[in-house]
Write a sequence for this structure.
């Protein structure tokens, strides 16, 4: 982890986002650490790991395996890298009580995921946390993270109207609803705009391309952190 970076904003945004979805795409460099920290914070147990590429699970057996996991946090290795859309669509429809974390090995792989998947999954920005080469340091504990609160429907509608005035000509209503729910859940938190930009970037790139994502990013106060993601996505987009 980079020196001088506080985990508190990251942890707070992560837990607030749980009110929006149960599916999170996380950099593979820290996916397991994030999963374990979250799981220990919830009930004192480590996260559970399932390698969907090795176990060759179909959607039904994967959902069953997830439900039987003893941990509230489950890491699904290989799902995004293999672009297992059948499993992803199944998990989005299930609205699982578990929190599911999907390691991301390379941003370019995200372009292979259907835009509809991004309406039910959040890409977690983590560049500010990771530095290479890694140095051995004691694990940090982030205390007093507010729990996820139920979304206020009136606030979601307000956010939807606000985003709609800026993005309605370029982003489908379903995607706007997902972005509005995220904004409502993270309102007032430092770093929330960068997280929103990430969701907008992957969704727009999947539906169109990175150039459209770049243009939309500029409409709602673009941030430097999303530029690396847009660069990695450039030249790749989901094939319908």
């Amino acid at each position: 982890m980079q020196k001088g970076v506080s985990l508190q904003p990251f942890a707070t945004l992560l837990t607030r986002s749980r009110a929006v979805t149960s599916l999170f795409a996380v950099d593979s460099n820290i996916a397991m650490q994030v999963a374990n920290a979250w799981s220990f914070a919830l009930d004192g147990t480590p996260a559970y790991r399932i390698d969907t590429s090795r176990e060759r699970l179909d959607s039904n057996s994967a959902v069953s395996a997830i439900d039987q996991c003893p941990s509230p946090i489950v890491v699904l290795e290989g799902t995004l890298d293999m672009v297992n859309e059948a499993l992803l669509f199944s998990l989005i429809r299930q609205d699982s009580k578990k929190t599911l974390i999907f390691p991301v090995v390379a941003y370019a792989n995200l372009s292979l995921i259907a835009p509809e998947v991004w309406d039910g999954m959040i890409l977690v920005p983590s560049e500010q946390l990771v530095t290479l080469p890694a140095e051995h340091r004691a694990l940090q504990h982030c205390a007093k993270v507010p729990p996820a609160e139920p979304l206020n429907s009136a606030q979601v509608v307000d956010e939807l109207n606000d985003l709609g005035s800026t993005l309605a000509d370029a982003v489908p209503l379903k995607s706007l609803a997902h972005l509005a729910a995220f904004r409502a859940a993270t309102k007032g938190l430092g770093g929330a705009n960068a997280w929103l930009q990430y969701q907008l970037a992957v969704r727009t790139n999947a539906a169109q391309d990175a150039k459209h994502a770049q243009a939309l990013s500029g409409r709602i106060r673009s941030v430097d952190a999303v530029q690396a993601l847009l660069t990695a996505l450039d030249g790749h987009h989901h094939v319908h």
